[in-house]
Amino acid sequence: MRNLIVKLHIYAGLLTFTQLMIFGVAGLVATVQSGAERPKDPHTIRHQSFRPPPGASDRQVADIVYRELKLPLTRPMPTFAIKRNASNDLQLDFYNINGIYRVVVLERDGMLSIEEIRNSLPLFLGDLHATTTGDTEAPRLMRIWGIYNEVAMWFLLAFVVSGMYLWLSAQARTWWAWGSLAAGVFCFAALWMSFR
Fold it and tell me: What DSSP string describes 111-143?
């Protein structure tokens, strides 16, 4: 039985390693970062010819742009995000895990200006950390990551429970191990009581 629990403990730890590293780095970055400011400077800018249908609404143009460009890891533009810039050009910010694709519809010139604004690594990890299975409209790759996040949380629970079993079933238990357990339980109880 113990050998089976040891294997469960090891494999559960390996399965959750990537998730815990991302959560840890994202948490540390959020602690030291001064604000959640996103980059504004484009990494690349390209242009593509485009003429919206005459009389099309901003919503219809946004849907056409989304279908034509097929920008990776993006989703259709929500209505509240459709806006015009200071030059009265339709500006569409397609957010994704890597940053923003800013598409400006230059109707007078008959083209699209497509800027790729990339997230820094800390922002990328923070966005990855926040991905859940509840976002049903997310691109498939993001939904897969959300499922991995959820499965890894269950394996983390198995990792902790199997670790407790292995420790309790071990012959040698030191005073500092008991002290660590007591400190952890006390901190959890204190936090729980302070939030009530």
Answer: EEEEEEEEPPHHHHHHHHHT--TT-TTS-HHHH
